[in-house]
Amino acid sequence: MVRMKRFLAAIQFLTILPLPAALDPDGRALGHSLPFFPLVGLAIGAVAALADWALWHILPLGVTSVLSVILLIAASGALHLDGLADTADGLFSARPRERVLEIMRDSRTGPMGVAAIVAVITLKIALLSSLAAPGRWWVLVLTPVAGRCALLIHLALLPYVRPEGGLADLFHQNRSQGHALWALLFLLALGSLAGGFPGFLAAAVAALAALLLAAYLQRRLGGLTGDTLGAACELTELAPALAAAALLGGVGP
After folding, report:
1. Residues 162-189 as b or e (16 or more Cβ within 10 Å = b)
2. Residue 224 bridge partners (DSSP)
3. Spatial distance between the Cα atoms of 132 and 139, rounded to a whole number of angstroms
4. Looking at the predicted structure, is the pLDDT value of residue 26 above 70?
5. Which of 226, 109, 96 is nearest to 161 (CA)?
6. How many CB atoms lie within 10 A of CB 91?
């Protein structure tokens, strides 16, 4: 029962799926829901891959790719895109660390934030459009998993830099380095099972991207914030499709 509450808490936080009031988990369950993040990513990816497969039979490849990316965005209510925009506004301001954190807290989106959102969405669509069956389906499954595993990796490895606290602090208080190991193993195992050796390589590239981004944030900000978690999710999601496009290349029939 406790595990189910934590799983439901992860679903509630990471997706727009409504839960009945009787199943609404509390803050304690949410704080301990981290191990279920990759599983929620897998559920999102499976739904996206199934929808993409159905649409691919009735619509042109480019249109199908756009709709699949929209589905991935809608599944989380664009939660992580908001963090990407705030992170881009702060980091690309070329200001000192303290000023960067102030800019990231501002709810208004600046030009760099808008540019980051447009660039990431455009690249996702272009990458997916470059992939044909069967590669595109395991890439769609792996994409949201990679993003949610990146959340665990960053929470496990980086300190939280806002002394005033925030929602991310609730997760950070309950994280352990074992969460990073679990995320890496889950990501690599799923990549291998879903895509064979190309899938394993795509998962490895995603894991490396998450680790490199964590190292950059440690050097630039001294740790993470809720916004950088969203940015890590969105940027790491690009990695499987980038790797698959390089390995598989070209659009087939």
Report:
1. beeeeebbbbbeebeeebbebbbebbbe
2. 160
3. 10
4. no
5. 226
6. 21
Answer whether residue 18 is part of any domain. Answer: no
Q: Residue 142: which domain range? A: 45-248
Q: What is the pLDDT of residues 108-150, one digit of tens each?
A: 888 999 999 999 999 999 999 999 888 899 999 999 999 999 9
Give the total number of structural domains in the chain.
Answer: 1
25, part of any domain: no
Q: Return the structure tokens found at 215.
A: 């190292």
- Cα 97 to Cα 52: distance, rounded to the nearest angstrom: 42
| Residues 149 and 184 sit within 8 Å (Cβ to Cβ) | yes
Confidence of residue 170 (pLDDT cuts 50, 70, 90): confident
The closest of 45, 49, 107, 105 to 76, measured between CA atoms, is: 45
Res. 252 pLDDT band, cuts 50 70 90: very low
Phi, psi of 176 (to 5 degrees): -145, 165
**For residues 246 and 240, what is the distance between their CA atoms, to the nearest angstrom?**
10
In a domain, 79, yes or no: yes
219 within some domain: yes
